[in-house]
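Record type: monomer structure entry
Structure origin: computed from sequence
Chain ID: A
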Amino acid sequence: MVKTVVVGLGVIAACVLWMGFSYACTPGGCGGPCSATAEGSDEKAPDYTALYRKVCSDCHGKDGKPAFLWKTANAPDFTDPKWQEESGTQRLIKAVTDGKGKMDPFKGKLSDAEIKGLIENIVRGFAKKQEPEKARGKKPPTK
């Protein structure tokens, strides 16, 4: 019985390690779950959602809203239309690359293409999830 439990835990640990390594790949790299093939192409397109979850969501939240601890450390709310409007893409690329405030730099950890892709595909995507009227800061018309 004890031997069976130990073997079972070993198999679970091996699966968890495999999943961790497969999500740590880079575009065109390991061929794990984060490297989906681009349609009509032999190149692998990066899965920015998986990359965001791996490197950004602990501080910036899975939904783009930082957890309380990180909000107090001035982590931005990516769903805030005003923040989205005021934050230029080049400024965000620089902040992620070089670090800003309590955020460590990701230069050397992520490629320039990954940083730009995260911002354009994920961070900017949180604004698109807002209601169109709310994103423009206007109240919806009343009937």
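Annotation 1: The first strand starts at residue 35 and ends at 37.
Annotation 2: Strands lie at 35-37, 44-46.
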